[in-house]
Amino acid sequence: MSAPASRPALRGPSRLEKAEGWRAPGQDAGWLNPVTERFLLLLLVRKELRVRYRGSVLGMVWSYVKPAVQFVVFYIALGVFLQLQKDTPAYAVYLFSGIVAVNLFGEVFGNATRSITGNAPLVSKIYLPSQLFPWSSMIVALVHFLPQLVVLVVGALLFGWVPSGTAAVAFVLGLVILLVFTMGLGMLGAALNAAFRDVENFVDLIVMVATWLSPVLYRIAMVEEAIGGTWMWWLYQLNPLTIVVELFHVAFWRYGPDVVERAATDPSLTQPGEPFGLWWAGLLIAAVTFVAGTVVFERSKRRFAQEL
C-alpha cells in the first residue's frame, strides 16, 4: 500500500516577490497606500468625478458657480454695504484669494469625512485599502480647486499683480500647510463618522465658522485692533487656516501695485511677520494633526465594515 501523497508545504514570499512588493491578501501598506496603490487611487478619483456629475448639465462649471456666488454676495454685503473696499485696496483680490483657500479646506475636510460612509458598499463588501477613500476625495477637491485658482490669477493680473518668487513660495507653503492639516482632520473625521454619523454635521459647522474666524472677509489688522495683546490674539494667529489665508494674500494680493502704494502710508496693510508670517508654526501644527489623524484612522479601519 503506497504512502499518501504529502501536501505541499506552505511557503512564504520569495526574495523576488518581496522585492516586487508582494503582500498577503488582506494586508496593506498602511499610510503609504496612496503611493503603493496609485492605480486604485486613480480609479476611485475617476469614479467620484463621474458619480458627482452624473446627470448634470453644467458638469465642471459648478466648480465656478459656488465661489462666484460666494464672492458676489460677500463683496456686495461687506465691500459695498459695509464699505470695506474703501480701506482695503484691491479688495476683490483680497476677498477671492481667501474664499479660494477656505473653499478648498471645506471641500477636502467635508469630502474626506464622508468618504468611508459614502463608499459603504465598497468598504463592506470587498477589500480595498481604506486610506484611498479620503485621499481620492482630496484629489477630487484639487481638481475643483484648479479652475478657481485660474480665475484668481487672472483677476490678480487685471489689478496689476506680477508673479514673483515670494508669491510662489507663499502659495506653495500655504497649499502644503492646508492640505496636510486638512487631510489630518479629514482622516480623523472619517474614522469617527463611520461610528457616529453626527460627526459630518459638526464638520459642516466647523467649515462655516472657519470662514468667519479667518481673515477672509476682513483684514487681520482689524482683529489685532480688537483683541491684540491677549491670549485670544495669539490663538487666532496660530490657527492654521489663518496662516494659510494670510499666505494666499501674500501670494496674490499683498504685493499688487495698489497695495504697495497704500502700504507706504498705511502700516495696517502690512501683516505680522511678513512675508511668510508664522508658516513654521502652521506647518508644525499641520504635521502633528496629520500624524494624529492617520494613527486614529489606522486603528479604526478594521472596524469600518462592521460599523457600516
From TrEMBL:
Annotated ABC transmembrane type-2 domain residues: 58-300
Places the protein is found: Cell inner membrane; Cell membrane
Main location: membrane
Pfam family, one: ABC2_membrane
Topological relation to the membrane, as annotated: Multi-pass membrane protein
Transmembrane segments: 64-84, 91-112, 132-162, 169-196, 202-221, 233-256, 276-297
InterPro entries the UniProt entry points to: ABC2_TM (IPR013525), ABC2_TM_bact-type (IPR047817)
Stretch forming the signal peptide: none
UniProt keywords, alphabetically: Cell inner membrane, Cell membrane, Membrane, Transmembrane, Transmembrane helix, Transport
Recorded superkingdom: Bacteria
Family in the record: Belongs to the ABC-2 integral membrane protein family.
Protein name: Transport permease protein
Organism: Brachybacterium hainanense
